[in-house]
Amino acid sequence: MIGGTWEEGVSVSVDVELTFEQPAPAGPLLEVDDLKTHFLTPRGRVKAVDGVSFTLARGRTLGVVGESGSGKTILARSIMNLLPKMNVRRSGSVRFMGRELVGLGDREMRRLLGAEMAMVFQDPLSSLNPVMTIGKQITEALRLQTGMGKNEARLTAIALLRSVGIPEPEQRFTEYPHLLSGGMRQRVMIALALACGPKLLFADEPTTALDVTVQAQILNLLQDNQKDRYMAMVLVTHDLGVVAGRTDEIAVMYGGRIVEQAPTSVLFSRMQHPYTEALLRSIPRVENPSHTKLEVIRGRPPDLINPPPGCAFSVRCPYAQDDCREEVPTLLEGAGFGHRFACFHPLGDRGPAPVEVTKKPPVDGQEPPVDGQEPAVDGQEPGG
Q1: CA atoms within 13 A on the CB side of 77
Q2: Burial class (CB in 10 A: 0-12, 13-18, 19+), 188
Q3: Which of 22, 227, 234, 244 is the most exposed place for a label (fewest CB within 10 A)?
Q4: Would you place residue 362 in the very low, low, confident or very high pLDDT band (cuts 50, 70, 90)?
């Protein structure tokens, strides 16, 4: 039962229920196989995503981590086919609920976007329409995808705004994006993405430019909604600290490729790729004294038009040897536990001390993995 207030000031109470599907049978919801997205530019072909493969089951969260330019955002947009129409070459396979998306027409994709898969974009101020009210933008999606009437869509939109923690949702419903704070705009983006009950949600740097307190609120909101709706989620970020404890699995991207992938607890305790180690060391630590200089990853990300020979990280890697500069390492299974990494000379015992990570609460009744026991694993512009 949701109460609403009409413009005339008459208080009404209407039954509006936000219902979600029951858990689907086990199995991959999303299967990505050798996905490549290349942009044709005057300088040459930009290999923004260059052969990425992974699977994601319903109710699970995959964290995609890497520096700016590593291909994270383009990977998410490639899966949803949110790419320019000209000078783009996309190949490989993207299967969503068993349906191939690569080569799918625009009309068929529009039926999926919003209803079956959605995205929380990085910058809500530029993603929201500045000349449309918040309510209009949400009700438009509801009426288009679900066929709701005007009044039902209005009350559902107000209920969505309330569910993401926006105070006085009836008033916010009539306001424009520029009247809201950054945190409130991001909550509106989440409400808009969740409006039609998608099975798969992409969150592209959802806490960029927000203060630390609001970041935690937004991440908790996404996690709670994912659990309630039994969604799969891909959390895109440059910060390993964001995905620690909030994801089931992490994929580390560099130069358009996945260089390491493992369940979250396994990656933090047994990381093998030097790039993953460098990302972890660059995280600020509260135990450090004031004015302590942050550790940085020396050098620059690779040129995706003319990448260096061999491993793309070899020019910045302190452990690189001759074979690293001559041959591209393949992403292969490591020491079990669903752990894959692409490195000829993995860290092994050289790696940092294991990091204590708060395990993500189980979504579908699965128990979190126990040390020594194999965890359950289901199944910017160019350069991202």
Answers
A1: 22
A2: buried
A3: 22
A4: low
- The one-character DSSP state at 349 is G
Pick the CATH number of 58-79+200-363+374-384 from 3.40.50.1000, 3.40.50.300, 1.20.1440.230, 3.40.630.30: 3.40.50.300
pLDDT in the model for residue 338: 87
Q: Write the single-letter amino acid at 103.
A: G
- Alpha-carbon distance values, 85 to 81, 82, 322 (Å): 10, 9, 41
The pLDDT, as a whole number, for residue 124 is 84
Q: What is the pLDDT of residue 360?
A: 61
pLDDT 10s digits, 93-108: 999 999 999 989 988 9
Question: What is the sign, positive or negative, of the torsion defined by CA atoms of 15, 18, 22, 24?
Answer: positive
Outline where DSSP puts E strands in the chain.
2-5, 11-14, 28-41, 44-57, 61-65, 88-96, 99-100, 117-120, 200-204, 232-237, 249-254, 257-263, 332-333, 340-341
Chain-centre distance for alpha carbon 282: 21
Neighbours of 224 (CB within 10 A): 13
Report the distance separating Cα 247 and Cα 259, nearest Å. 18
Give the pLDDT mean for 225-239.
91
Residue 130 has pLDDT above 80, yes or no: yes
- Report the amino acid identity of residue 4: G
* Exposure on the CB side of residue 225, measured as CA atoms within 13 A: 30
CA atoms 325, 329, 334, 339: torsion sign: positive
- Every domain of the chain and the residues it spans: 58-79+200-363+374-384, 117-197
Determine the Cα–Cα distance for residues 92 and 48; give it in Å rounded to an integer: 14
